[in-house]
Automatic annotation (TrEMBL):
It catalyses: L-seryl-[protein] + ATP = O-phospho-L-seryl-[protein] + ADP + H(+); L-threonyl-[protein] + ATP = O-phospho-L-threonyl-[protein] + ADP + H(+). GO terms for molecular function: ATP binding; protein serine/threonine kinase activity. This is non-specific serine/threonine protein kinase. It is found in: Cell membrane. It is a lipid-anchor. Keywords: ATP-binding, Brassinosteroid signaling pathway, Cell membrane, Kinase, Lipoprotein, Membrane, Myristate, Nucleotide-binding, Serine/threonine-protein kinase, Transferase. Its EC number is 2.7.11.1.
Amino acid sequence: MGVSCSKFSLCCFNSNLKSSPHDLSDLENGGENGKNVLPSFTEFSLDVLMIATDGFAADNIVSEHGEKAPNVVYKGLLENGHWVAVKRFNRSAWPDSRQFLDEAKAVGNLRSERLANLLGCCCEGEQRLLVAEFMPNETLAKHLFHWDSQPMKWVMRLRVALYLAQAMEYCCNKGRAIYHDLNAYRILFDQDGNPRLSCFGLMKNSRDGKSYSTNLAFTPPEYMRTGRVTSESVVYSFGTMLLDLLSGKHIPPSHALDLIRVKNLTMLMDSCLEGDFSNDDGTELVRLATRCLQYEARERPNAKSLVNSLITIQKETEVPSHVLLGIRHGTATPPQPLVLTTTGEACLRRDLTALHEILQKTGYKDDEEIANELSFQMWTNQMQETLNSKLQGDAAFRAKDFITAIKCYTQFNDGGTMVSPTIYARRCLCYLMSDMAQEALGDAMQAQVISSEWPTAFYLQSVALFSLGMENDAQEALKEATKLEAKRNKN
């Protein structure tokens, strides 16, 4: 589920749950006094899910684009009127039907209002499908990184951190401490605006009996050494989530820790908050993030400790989440299929040649609004060398000599006298052409930092993320790029 998870993965059961964010006692079995109890885990027939999704129609795809995506999520409407999300694995996944069924049942036994719960599965022939609650109010990534009308309020960010920690604690208590690829696209908002943790990340990926992941955005240090996911790895990922909530951006932990070490918290905090937060609360979240991101896994806190720390800094607990989130209360309309532009289609196909032609044709017109204030003293040999590097890089870019272009554009950026989102975009494509997807993603993100509403930066992020196998993140970036391009064309 999952930009890869996503808003798209859960089902809209009306659950007017009122438990306090300080209290976990009512989190199981549908909430307070057992009201609105979710149905027990069900083995759905393929025919039922075919009807619910109109035969797995392309129009019902909500998380991946097209039938070529490895694991596609469809919206579906059951006969009882409940919207569900149906995740359909490719045929090579889960070859052992018994293993798939046992794993799905184990996850399906979990019931918490902090989770987007797994309702059932289908295991007929080679078909492997999961059926989950549908969460109608987008992902944390959408509300935090790609908001339309207002940034997420600080109080809501604190609530998200607590609810996520409570979800982790619940899973740990139930023997499911391992969660795969915890990120902002795995947090979804229900009809009440409450954040929920996607259940799909609880499905075990096992290799030789050891849990592993294939889609980690910022990899825990021990995973690089062992290739295995542990409960401590999940806490590390939780630390990256705290950084997201603090900064309003998806930034590498190493960069954040550098800012923390030099006590440059102003650079770390989301400028959109405009000081609308308590310094003490911000300091506490930074402290928790630092503990979670410790290099040695044994030095990281456990989920219970995180919950206890986060409870103490909650504010306005009586205010409903939908009010804090600024959304209409009740069931939202399921997302509509994405209509892609020419550039978007090229990104989806990863047609780098077409993207090269587009960047070449666009030139530097998107740099016009970037301020480069240069003093007279800067017009020196260094400045001339910087400009020469740009010209040489452009010539190499036209000639498709991508290695030379990378070298020249790097010299331009290292000159430090000018900033150019186009240079980063062009070097990003050069990296993609050279099978250097991680470096390409870094450049695309840097282009976004310089020009926050530039569609090209998000388009290139999507291609880099596709290349890294991060399908869900790529889809979310592609949607944001499409939205920004439509907004620009309207203006």
